[in-house]
Structure formats: structure tokens, C-alpha cells
Design goal:
Blueprint (H helix, E strand, L loop, with lengths): L7 H25 L1 H25 L27 E5 L5 E5 L3
Antiparallel strand pairs: 1-2
């Protein structure tokens, strides 16, 4: 599933949906009162949190990654100091240490 491009039409559509949601929320608060709207908001928030926790298990997984062909490339990790003649390590401004690895 690909996301739509962010064109002016999609941006304005999002703004209009947001505005409709705000108007609906204000009208709901005005009609039922804050006490009842607070309890309803708590229930809706709990259901939204539960849905967010369960959604990854209910939604289909994305497309599988293709297997690379051929041998896996070797990844070098860390620093190789086998042939180093000296290393300077500085932890802070004046804390400098010189290590010499001469045979």
C-alpha cells in the first residue's frame, strides 16, 4: 500500500476533515456537557489505545524482502589496530594518552 502524494488537494482534504472533527467535538461538548463528554472521551481514548496495540497483529504484513543473490557481503566492524604504530585517545580536553604498539 503506497501513501498518496502530498498534493494541494490532499492537504486541503486533510484540513477540511480536521475542521469537521473540531466542529463535531465542540458541538458534542456543548450539547452533552463536560462531565458526560469527559467520560465518553475516556472510553474512546481507551478503545483507541487498545486498537493501536492490537492493530499490528490484525493488519497484513508488508511485502517480503527479496533474498539477495550470491554470497553475503563481509561487513567490517570495529577498528583494526594490528598494524598501528601509535594511537591517540582523547576523552576530554586535556586528557590525552599515547599508546605505542612497537614490538
Amino acid at each position: 500500500m503506497s501513501l498518496p502524494r502530498r498534493t494541494r488537494t490532499w492537504i486541503w482534504a486533510g484540513r477540511i476533515v480536521f475542521l469537521i472533527g473540531v466542529i463535531g467535538l465542540v458541538s458534542h461538548l456543548a450539547s452533552v456537557g463536560l462531565e458526560k463528554a469527559d467520560s465518553l472521551g475516556s472510553v474512546v481514548g481507551a478503545l483507541a489505545a487498545l486498537g493501536a496495540l492490537v492493530a499490528p497483529y490484525l493488519l497484513p504484513a508488508g511485502p517480503a524482502k527479496p533474498e539477495p543473490e550470491g554470497p553475503e557481503p563481509q561487513i567490517r566492524r570495529g577498528i583494526d589496530l594490528r598494524h598501528a604504530q601509535g594511537v591517540q585517545i582523547s576523552e576530554s580536553g586535556n586528557n590525552v594518552m599515547h599508546n605505542n604498539f612497537w614490538s
